[in-house]
Amino acid sequence: MHTILVVDDEPNYRVVLAEILKEEGYEVFTANSGTEGMPVVQSTDLDLVISDMKMPGMDGIDFLTNIKKLNRQLPVILITAYAEVEKAVEAMRLGAFTYLAKPFSNEALLAAVAKAIEHYGLVREIRRLRDEVTPRSGFSGMIGKNERMRAVYQLIEKVAPTPSSVLITGESGTGKELVARAIHNLSPRKDAPFISVNCAALSATLLESELFGHEKGAFTDAIAMRKGRFELASNGTLFLDEIGEMPHSLQAKLLRVLQERSFERVGGSQPIQVDVRILAATNKDLRDEVEKGTFREDLYYRLNVIHIHLPPLRERVDDIPLLVSFFLEKNRKQLGKSLEISPEALRLLVSLPWEGNVRELENTIERAAILCNNDRIEPEDVQPDSAELAEGHEWSSTLDLNQFIPSDLPLAEVLNGIEEKLVRQALDEANYVQARAAEQLGITKSLLQYKMKKYHLQRKKG
């Protein structure tokens, strides 16, 4: 819902303008002077200000000047008497979007309002796009010719033109947000915003405010009205990353938005209509979470209209050379180096397990590109994140393995057996608090979750 401030010292005129705009679906604030209007500008996420030119105290020009000091891009429409047109032209030089000379028709008012709000929306979108790192066009950023990846591309092309919700699953680092962006870029909504929210990064209270916005005074730190991601994503796409981490208390509110396409800001009572496509991603098995009672079954089926699963990198090793080439080119541009990689180093990269998936491979290439000698990456330059765990084992030089391990066991079986025992032991000692167990093992929580799934280690009951 677009928000407008109307400022006029004539009460009847102010009320009439507000009613015309409310009938068109705008959220309207009013003030009787520039002095009264400034706190609204400071505390409200506005899309437009409409102000009379001639007012006692702070007139329209002064009001405009003060607004531009706070937000240079916020559009201001000034209302003038016919005799003040020269002054209005001067106001446009100072940053006013346009002016309306009295008397004007409702149609002229609404046309100017729509144009100003559309312009401000484009300004905001351009600013957001400049801040983005990931390219937005088509499948840009998605690399791979593996058969399973080709199936993912085909599915993206099929679902992108539809309004359906999509659930994207896969391990951490497989590129779930890239899939979401590709769906958006290939959809009819491609010219509208793509807004991303990480549900695991915020507490329940902050996440609710981030998604739905809040009214001024809704809670202690709510010193200004703020629009949430649903409003900012209007007519576009909202990507809910790590949806499996969303607090149960918020899942019901999200379900209502999906069903009714409306919500209220935190601390507010006015329903706000939204047209937003929902894409969600998780590295969890949401069916298991439903069975555990941590995720609502009705919300799961609302989100899982279309399911896209991304394979881990170890299941598409034939794509590793392509990915290495892509990341090398990226680092050539960033570092200004004529980078190359030796065949031995490439063979090593293909043979590694990549538990952190594409993200870990990208980090490894970036690190090697910085540290390598003569702009050539050799095997000794390749240091994956997961390989850091293998450093500093001086204690093993005096260990007699024959006392503990049968000599006829394959290496993989030995390593897996030891790893499973260490993971199980850490989980037991941490009472299955994953963050604590991961810290004890010196690995990330996501890597611990992968190992728990690998060895079928369930959370302790009771």
Low-confidence stretches: 132-137, 388-392
The share of residues in extended strands comes to: 5-15%
Q: The CATH topology of the largest domain, please?
A: Rossmann fold
Structural class of the helices, strands and pairings?
alpha/beta
Strand tally is 14
Helix content range of the residues, please?
Answer: 40-55%
H/I helix tally = 18
Distance between the termini: 46 Å
Number of domains: 4
CATH superfamily of the largest domain: P-loop containing nucleotide triphosphate hydrolases
CATH class of the largest domain: Alpha Beta
Judging by the overall fold, what is the CATH architecture of the largest domain?
Answer: 3-Layer(aba) Sandwich
Q: What order do the helices and strands come in, and which of them pair?
A:
Layout: E1 3-7, H1 11-23, E2 27-31, H2 34-43, E3 48-52, H3 60-70, E4 76-80, H4 85-93, E5 98-101, H5 106-131, H6 147-159, E6 166-169, H7 176-185, E7 194-198, H8 204-212, H9 229-232, E8 237-241, H10 248-260, E9 262-263, E10 272-273, E11 277-282, H11 286-292, H12 297-303, E12 306-309, H13 320-335, E13 340-341, H14 343-351, H15 357-371, E14 376-377, H16 411-429, H17 434-441, H18 445-454
Parallel strand pairs: 1-2, 1-3, 3-4, 4-5, 6-11, 6-12, 7-8, 8-11, 13-14
Antiparallel strand pairs: 9-10
Please describe what this structure looks like:
- The chain has 462 residues and is of the alpha/beta class.
- The chain folds into 4 domains: 3-131, 3-Layer(aba) Sandwich (Rossmann fold); 147-311, P-loop containing nucleotide triphosphate hydrolases (Rossmann fold); 314-390, Helicase, Ruva Protein, domain 3 (Orthogonal Bundle); 406-454, Arc Repressor Mutant, subunit A, CATH 1.10.10.
- It has 18 helices and 14 strands.
- It has helices at residues 11-23, 34-43, 60-70, 85-93, 106-131, 147-159, 176-185, 204-212, 229-232, 248-260, 286-292, 297-303, 320-335, 343-351, 357-371, 411-429, 434-441, 445-454, and strands spanning 3-7, 27-31, 48-52, 76-80, 98-101, 166-169, 194-198, 237-241, 262-263, 272-273, 277-282, 306-309, 340-341, 376-377.
- The strands form 4 sheets. A 5-stranded parallel β-sheet has the order 2-1-3-4-5, sandwiched between helices.
- Strand 1, helix 1 and strand 2 form a beta-alpha-beta unit.
- The protein is elongated.
